[in-house]
Amino acid sequence: MSRFDFTQGFDPEAFTHMVRRVGHGGALGIHYVAHGAHWVELGLDYQEKLVGVAETGVLASGPIISLMDMATSMAIWMKLGRFRPQATLDLRVDYLRPATPGRRIVGRGECYGLTKSIAFVRGTAHDGDAEDPVAHVTGTFIGTE
To answer: What CATH number has the domain spanning 12-143?
Structure first.
């Protein structure tokens, strides 16, 4: 396994590839979709093992929360231009509707504010139409240097 170099800026695609092999995101199957200067999009493909209630076929909330925590966290690193250790202080998730069974969830996280130690994030999760989101998130992270 190659090592991820945390000193050379932040590459969200390489980072996602690394954690797919070793981390919680990998266990869920979270993968890289796209990124910009202060945002990251990640995907979570539909899997039966992630369904909350078998009769409905709807993904459980936990994997969607994990997706959004990872996308918003990575958005901070994009805005900083580098990795830094950090922890989620607060992540509010407002579910607007159930995810459609069988569809991929795309989570877009954005970092819209930074102080010396606090980052402010927001994002949406959708299952194919960004104008009809499954959930909105807002949150704060604390980072260390």
So the answer is: 3.10.129.10
Nearest to 141 by CA among 96, 79, 51, 99: 79
2 versus 138: which is more confidently predicted? 138
pLDDT in tens, 43-86: 999 999 999 888 899 999 999 999 999 999 999 999 999 999 99
Q: How many CA atoms lie within 13 A of 130 on its CB side?
A: 8
User: DSSP characters for 13-53?
Assistant: HHHHHHHHHHSHHHHHTEEEEEE-SSEEEEEE---GGGEEE
Beta strand spans in 96-134 (E): 105-114, 118-126
Looking at residue 114, its pLDDT comes to: 95
Q: What share of the chain is helix, strand, coil (3-state, %, to 5)?
A: 25, 40, 35
- Which has the closest alpha carbon to 133: 96, 85, 94, 100? 96
At 8, the amino acid letter reads Q
Q: Please name which of 131, 47, 48, 58 lies closest in space to residue 98, comparing C-alpha atoms.
A: 58
In the chain, where are the structural domains located? Answer: 12-143
